[in-house]
Amino acid sequence: MRNIEAFNLVVGEVFGQCYREFPCRIDISTMELGATLKEAKGECVQGELDLREAEYSFARESVQWLVDAGYLWCTTPAAYKFMGATLSPKGLEVLNTIPEGLEMKVSLGEELSQGVVALGKEATKQMVLKALSMGAKLMVGF
After folding, report:
1. DSSP class of 21
2. What is the number of domains present in the chain?
């Protein structure tokens, strides 16, 4: 799996969790996100986790990017959790959008709140691409 595909899966899962719980703050576990990535690659996730594996640090970097890019607010980023995370106004605006061109009748957030497993990898990736594109347009005033 390429980095951008893995990134889109992590972002889809994080957006879904945050939208589902909004406006409450949640803890985002990079261990769970790493396990989701391993499962998406077809790897079995059982027994003890080896947090030195690339999927866990990749998940952490992906969530940190969402914070840095202004999609999420987080009170305490830690090694394996982002504590007190919630959607920023930018993140909420993007996820409340019902995009044109996709055969959807609900917002991106509603769709993503189902989770990667329920939506499937391809659908999640398409929705994340649309959400991040909308976020970029907000930044430059399109």
Report:
1. H
2. 1
CB 55 within 8 A of CB 38: yes
- Tell me whether the omega of the peptide bond preceding residue 23 falls within 30 degrees of 0, making it cis: yes
Whole-number Å distance between alpha carbons of 105 and 12: 18
Token duo for residue 38: 């391993």
- The DSSP code sequence of 101-133 is TSS-SS-HHHHHTT-HHHH-HHHHHHHHHHHHH
Q: Which domain holds residue 64?
A: 3-140
Burial of 99 (0-12, 13-18, 19+ CB in 10 A): middle
Cα angle at 91 between 96 and 13, to 5 degrees? 90
How does pLDDT run across 62-121, given as a tens digit for each residue? 999 999 999 999 998 887 899 999 999 999 988 887 766 556 577 778 888 887 777 777
Q: Cβ distance 9 to 37 under 8 Å? A: yes
